[in-house]
Each structure stands twice: as structure tokens, then as C-alpha cells.
Specification:
Elements (H helix, E strand, L loop, with lengths): L13 H26 L14 E6 L3 E7 L8 E6 L2 E8 L16 E8 L10 E5 L2 E7 L2 H5 L9
Antiparallel strand pairs: 1-2, 2-7, 3-4, 4-5, 6-7
Length: 157
């Protein structure tokens, strides 16, 4: 018995097996689409709108800067909160059209809330936020103590 005899597609009947592979590939793609549709909206990592809006965090010497991309949302629909060392970005993205004419949409609508724990002490009274062209930038100045607490540790070679 040859190793090729154990394979589900045999080199003996390539024409018949090629059609079988196309059917399996089609079934595989359809199953992926069904799972993506079913899991959308459960806020699981990698599915739906988990972790939305996307953020970028820069930790400088004197301040922490959080930049969030929130396209299609107006400034009045966004709220920025800071409490107990956690920055919260929340708001709502509203649909611009009625759903009756849509046949397919990958766009995400509805309420969102993103909580970001801050790694350093922040001066709450000096936090500033700016919203321009769908990008929210929040600047969180560090306290004097947080700025001086950085200790360089030598690495032995």
C-alpha cells in the first residue's frame, strides 16, 4: 500500500477530486461567513467591534497621550471621563440611513465604551481633550512624583 492510497484525494482520479476540493473550499468559506455573522456583536476579541474605538497610547516623560480613531462620530456624541486611574471613552455612532435599503453592511453602529487603565499617576485637573476629523486626542499630564520616579536599572553583561 502506498502513502498516496491513504490520502482522500488520489492521484489516480484527479478530475473527480478537483471538483470535490472546490465544493469543500466553498463549504469552508460559507461556514466562516456564518460564524463571523453569528459572533458579530458579542464583543469577543477579533470579532465584531471589540476594542473599538482603536487607540494609540504614547507614554512620554511628562504626559501620556491617548489617540482614538472614531470616524463617523461627531464631537457632541463623545464623552471623556477619568476616575480612579482609568480613562473612559464613551459615545454613540448613529446610522445615517434607514436599514430598509441596506443589503449588506460591515459598518458598526451603536454605543461604545472603552476603559483604559493609566500606568502612572495623572493630574486630573490638567487633562485636556481635542477632537478633530474623527480623531480624539486626550493628553494626561503626569504628576511631578510620577515624572521623577523613573529609575534606570543597569544590565549586567
Amino acid at each position: 500500500m502506498s502513502m498516496y492510497d491513504l490520502l482522500p484525494w488520489s492521484h489516480k482520479t484527479p478530475a473527480a477530486r478537483a471538483n470535490d476540493r472546490d465544493a469543500v473550499l466553498s463549504l469552508h468559506q460559507e461556514m466562516n461567513r456564518l460564524f463571523d455573522d453569528a459572533l458579530r456583536g458579542f464583543d469577543l476579541p477579533g470579532f465584531g467591534r471589540a476594542g473599538w474605538p482603536n487607540v494609540e497610547i504614547a507614554d512620554g516623560e511628562r504626559e501620556i497621550t491617548v489617540t482614538a480613531e472614531i470616524p463617523g462620530v461627531s464631537e457632541k456624541d463623545v464623552e471623556v471621563l477619568f476616575a480612579d486611574g482609568v480613562l473612559t471613552l464613551k459615545g454613540e455612532k448613529r446610522s445615517e440611513t434607514e436599514d430598509k435599503d441596506k443589503r449588506f453592511s460591515e459598518r458598526v453602529y451603536g454605543s461604545f465604551e472603552r476603559r483604559i487603565p493609566m500606568p502612572a499617576e495623572v493630574e486630573p485637573g490638567k487633562i485636556a481633550a481635542r477632537f478633530k476629523d474623527g480623531v480624539l486626542t486626550v493628553t494626561l499630564p503626569k504628576t511631578e512624583r510620577a515624572q521623577t520616579e523613573v529609575t534606570r536599572i543597569p544590565i549586567d553583561g
